[in-house]
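Schema walk-through. Below, the input block comes first and the output block second. Nothing else is stored per chain. Lengths vary across the set, and this one has 378 residues.
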Amino acid sequence: MEFSFTVKGHENILGTHDATLEFTKDTELTKRGNCIIGVDADFDSSSIQDFIKTNKKRKILVEISSGKEQDSFVCFINSSFKSNSQLVFRKSDFISERTFGINAAKSSLELDRKLMESIKASGAEITLKPIKHKCIIFDFDNTLEEFENSKSKGELAVAKEISKKYGHDEKEVKKLLENVDNEFTTKGLEKKDITLYDRIKWYHEYAKRNKIDIPESEIKKLVKIYWETINKEITAISGAHELLTSLKKAGYILAMLTDSDGAKKIKTDRIEKLRLEKYFELIVTGDDTQTTKPDEKNLKYLLDQLNKNRKDDDLIKFEECISIGDKPPADLMPCKPLGITTIWFKYGRWKTIITEKPQYVDFEAKKLAEAGRIIEQL
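--- output ---
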């Protein structure tokens, strides 16, 4: 069931609010109402309530068209909406009687500017469309694979090798290796530079800071020790196989998007060891895109690949996807502007680094089974 209504334009429409947007039945508007992008709305309150009852708390697509200009965004319905004269959409999850949509992907400021000028002059038609999710995009490290503990053991194995060969204190070596790891990972996130995830660079940096000469052959040996140790230690996160099995059985298309570890085979070997590859239609690593999260190029590449052999009726749209990951700035932040529903799997160190739910996170889950229940409700 879709629902449409129209609004008229007004000379004082600005559309410059960075958190909300609103359609109102009021006919007058001052420039203080910078979130309002349409006046004299003709929506019928009873029809709006019927739409809410039919779709409950579902995700919807809001399409706005004015002349040749158009834009759209997604949000979730607030089932306690009761206003007869205003429809307010918020980027946050704040709820009031006037709030029709929460966790909106866009505010009035983020709508196309040519569209805003057209609405101002000629009004617009707004269509609300319920969305059915088709595809679930998973991160890998610390979302499906327990990586922190195995990584720590890998770093310890490298520290022991360096300590034995160069006489450095084992604990100090491990501490410095962890520092280099954190620094290079953070830089990779900021600069979207895939080469910063290559452990060869990390160990060269360790040698540089300690003013020692470690031959390239020894560096490669350390990298081999690191990954061989991790591959021995890795386990799937509790509930991973059960969740993937149930989602597959429910008919969802499953895809994986994960950063590079320096070479694609390093990542795929671990995925295969955990017997996870069988669930996924597509697995994309940073080696395929030559960039890192949070570059949205990764998501666009993934969707292009999923749709490569699909017919028009079966094409997957961003708003029909759900993304699940443990590192919000990398896994989830780029999803929201594209209309992808986001679930923060609060596992590992990022649950302590980020203490408040970011605005781009739609839902939180402490266990994979909880993420599964959230998906069922959507």
